Amino acid sequence: MEQKNILSVKNLKKIYSSKQTGDNLALNDLNLDVKEGEIFGLLGPNGAGKTTFINILAGTVIKTAGQVNVWGFDLDENPRQVRAAVGIVPQEVNLDPFFSPRKLLELQAGLYGIKEKDRITDTILKLVSLEKQANSYARSLSGGMKRRLLVAKALVHQPPIVFLDEPTAGVDVELRQNLWKNVRLLNDLGVTIILTTHYLEEAEEMCDRIAILNKGNVVALDSTKNLLDRIQTKKVTFKTDKIIDIKDEDIDSLKVISKLDTEICVSYEKSKIHMEELINLIKRNNVKIIDISTDDGDLEDVFLRLIKN
Questions:
Q1: Which of 71, 101, 248, 279 could form a disulfide with 85 if both were Cys (CB 3.0 to 4.6 A apart)?
Q2: Does domain 5-229 match CATH 3.40.50.1820?
């Protein structure tokens, strides 16, 4: 079944003009489509245009040119419907410290004009595991709970798309895992997730597809798997029963990264060397291989290469 596009962006431009600095192109002819039900990653260095893009959808920044279509609604013709289709979880925690989670969600529902009988406050609190804290002051919540409350706030009007802006910036590992779990739960319920991040492992772990932005342009857009397949360099560490001597020039594209007693770490280009050749090279030294560990590189490699070009 072909997934349909839930968000479609064509030639989106945003120019910030100021008398002091002249024109600054934040988004330069941005084109991308997000499919219904996917977890889509927007990656890029700071200043790549990720937040500008989110703010245009949120209605807090006015685009300079281009078309944006969300859930079948055009941003120019139906700005209210577009805003209603999108839930945004901001980067910074901006909660009123004297309201309880329940009260905050009820207020938010009121702002969206949702009638009391149609509100799903308790369901949302359960979803982000805050049902026990429903009536505590927001100021007494831990950092992780506050993050989850921001997610809850974005879900009040049951939007089909949820944007997470750098959801795990500055949070510890445990909290990051917890947020990822919550995001997956949401996605399992059919919510389309778009997340901006500069943690590449986050994108690798979570996203079905990734767009890499740089200076307001999309420099790559592909499935996470295909992006990872573009990495040509592979690292291998061999543990042997005796010390061996291997040099870069033994095989084309081989690089010895480190030698420590009976452990040797090398890198090579996947397209030029087969693992077998490497193993044979080591066995020529009349040694036994006790252990092999490989490292396939990660998105960071792709990312840096794309941005350099």
A1: 71
A2: no
The answer for 154, left when phi > 0, alpha when psi is -120 to 50, beta otherwise, is alpha
- Residue written as tokens 């529902």? 109
What are the tokens at 72?
A: 């079948």
Q: Is 260 helix (H, G, I), strand (E, B) or coil?
A: strand
CA distances (Å), 240 to each of 105, 261, 267, 269, 275, in order?
60, 9, 17, 22, 16
Can you read off the two tokens belonging to residue 159?
Answer: 């939007």
Residues 148 and 182: beta-carbon distance below 8 Å: yes
Rg (CA), the chain: 24
Cα separation, 152 vs 131, in Å, equals: 11
Distance CA 223, CA 220 (A): 10
Nearest to 216 by CA among 47, 49, 22, 11: 49
**Helix-strand-coil split of the chain, %, nearest 5:** 35, 30, 35
Parse the chain into domains and list their residue ranges.
5-229, 234-297
Asked whether the beta carbons of 126 and 134 are under 8 A apart, the reply is no
Give me the residues paired with residue 9 across strands: 32, 68
Rounded distance, CA 76 to CA 70, Å?
11
pLDDT along the chain (309 residues), means of 10: 87 92 89 96 87 91 96 95 93 87 95 92 91 93 90 94 88 84 91 89 90 89 85 83 85 85 86 84 86 77 72
> Which residues 6+ apart lie within 8 Å of 72 measured at CB?
none
CA 41/CA 53 separation, integer angstroms: 13
Residue 49 CA to residue 214 CA, distance in Å, equals 7
CA 283 to chain centroid, in Å, comes to 42
DSSP structural state of residue 118: G
Burial class (CB in 10 A: 0-12, 13-18, 19+), 179: buried
Q: How far apart are CA 106 and CA 95, in angstroms?
A: 14
